[in-house]
Amino acid sequence: MSDRSQFFTSMTSGAISRRSALAGLAGLAAAGALTACGSPGRNPSGSASASSSPVAAPDKSDTDMLVNWSNWPEYIDVDDNGNHPSIQAFTKKTGIKVNYNEDYNDNDEFFAKVRPLLEAGQDTGRDTWVSTDWMVARLIRLGYVQKLDYANIPNSSNLEPSLKDASFDPGRPYSLPWQIGFVGIAYNPKATGGRKVTSVDQLLHDPTLKGRVTMLTEMRDTVGLVLIEQGVDLGQVTADQFTAALKVVQDAKDAGQLKGFTGNEYTKPLASGDTAACVAWTGDVVQLRADNPSLGYSLGEKGIPMFSDNFVIPNLAQHKKNAEKLIDYYYDPAVMAEVTDYVNYIPPVAGAKEILLKKDPGVANNELIFPSQEVLAKAQTFRGLTAEEETSFNRQFQAVVTG
Amino acid sequence: MAALTQAAVGAEAPAARPRRRGGLVPFLLLAPALLWLVVFFVVPTISLASQSLQTGDIDNGYTLTWHFATYADAMSRYWPQFLRSIIYAASATLGTLLLGYPLAWFIAHRAGRWKNLLLVLVVAPFFTNFLIRTLAWQIILTDNGPVTGFFRATGLTNVLQAIGLTDNNSLLGSQFAVTCGLIYNFLPFMVLPLYTILERLDTRLLDAAGDLYADGWNTFWKVIWPLSLPGVVSGTLLTFIPAAGDYINSKLLGNTQTVMIGQVIDAQFLRVLDYPIAAALSFILMAAIIILVAGYVRAAGTEELV
Questions:
Q1: Where along chain A do the CATH 3.40.190.10 domains lie?
Q2: Beta carbons of B141 and B152 less than 8 angstroms apart
Q3: Which A-chain residues 270-299 have CB contacts (< 8 A) with chain B?
Q4: What is the distance between the alpha carbons of residues A242 and A337, in angstroms, rounded to a whole number?
Q5: B43/A35 Cβ within 8 A
Q6: Model confidence over B13-50: pLDDT tens digits?
Q7: What is A181-306+388-401's CATH number?
Q8: How many Cβ pairs within 8 Å bridge chains A and B?
Q9: What SS3 class is residue A215?
Q10: pLDDT tens digits, residue range B229-256?
């Protein structure tokens, strides 16, 4: 959930286009993909993967001054020459070279890419990457990530206190957030005839929006929005509540209200007015508004689904200590402020706002980047799901999306 | 394909060379292709078949339990998407044929010194990424764009809507848009084989047809069309097969009612992590295409593809 507006950038990068091209030849290509990513005919000795504990590799950090970092596209500061000033400053300060790859386009895709390696107990070639909360839960559950050594991350004391006890990683032994975002409703007043779209109920039932509404393929964001509207606390969702909320989406789809379910690609149609209103991520809207100031955005009255993208360190990372030093570096409020100034998501580091108040008050005073305590109090995160629940929820949700 | 090549090489070699040497050389020449086929087709197909009959989940691993019910489950849940994929692919194939045939004829026989340039222009869009090309259609068919404006002004949107190809008085997010995208994206696969066949066509046959008082239609239908059949068959196959499995067009240009089977496989494989059903769906798609293509090739009665 990086800068999700940079659809072109992410789409033109090799990984996704190659995958899409392959999948286009579904029969043959799916065969190859399944072999590459599944574990056909190989039973990993019962529940080996579930019970396996994290595996550390001999740390080469001190001899090999390098760290391999995979992140979402356009999710960090960039200067006019395409360099990342904060990374350059890190290398200058510590002597550690950063091999920065924007090859994390999608949680599920990235998981499919690294799973066979982690499953087989092989090095993924990456020392850290940035996964969304529910994916962190899955990685921990499968024993694919290692505990962080907080002795190397003294700046972690700057973590916003409210983020310390994440339901998917209580006490944060395995993960530290990189950026935070809210899920809300965005609308284009030119396409709605000046009308505001303020609630999920309106989004899914207002006849003037018929056929011009999109929702996200991220299950927790789309269904989470409806669940909150129905008065459910996302931290306590039950299977029945989930199914009931999904039914509302299904009905709206059957009634022709929805144009589609999208990933990052919702931003362009929203800006052009082909989409009148949609479920959207905050950071995108801030960036879209730079070019289309008239775009509107509504956050839920009863509650706001919140997601976070988090640093994790996978098994057999060759430069674990360097990765921890990197995380430590970004938990310096001055460094995080620099990133926030560019990516416009909510920083997890306390003190970044104070620095930006001096440097860039426009960003510091933006409610979507630095929400008030009142808004923050409404933020809710989808609770961690068991394997069975995750499969069942995904199956139900995809039946609606691809039905 | 490889089997055909093998037969062809095998048949020629003994006649041309002493038997002793000829026995080995064709096989050595064939080795890379065979190896390729085994590594990238046979092995994945077998493991795909195995995967489709397994049960389990990612936490506990998968075991081969010969669970054939997955196939029945896949069919009963997703037959509408299968049917839709076949219909879209067939319409797109017909569309590319109707557009591509005159184009190929024109390039082959009327373009003169522009021939090479036109051929390059046919292929030129392929220098851009598949996704970008499809996204371009979003821009072309956008609600505020001139195309939609023209369709609205002339009442064509009402016509399309009446026959159920579009909704909500717009072009984007409809079966119409998906089919347009497919036609556009696969057009060169139709034009190029047609061009190679039509270009070789002896134009003196047309003069002969004229001498025998055939009118334009009869010349086309009784002379040109039968002679161009190999090109038509390979063009339609090259279009239909990938179009049936495509999911980018339906994802980017369609709506929630235009989901094709490729999207379902993508979702089951990547999002739900239900590998067995994704494998079963891929297998069914493969089988369906093989059966349709076999029937088609037999009906077209052409032995020499290309």
A1: 7-36+51-180+312-369, 181-306+388-401
A2: no
A3: 272-274
A4: 37
A5: yes
A6: 444 445 555 678 888 889 999 999 999 999 999 999 99
A7: 3.40.190.10
A8: 203
A9: strand
A10: 999 999 999 999 999 999 899 988 998 8
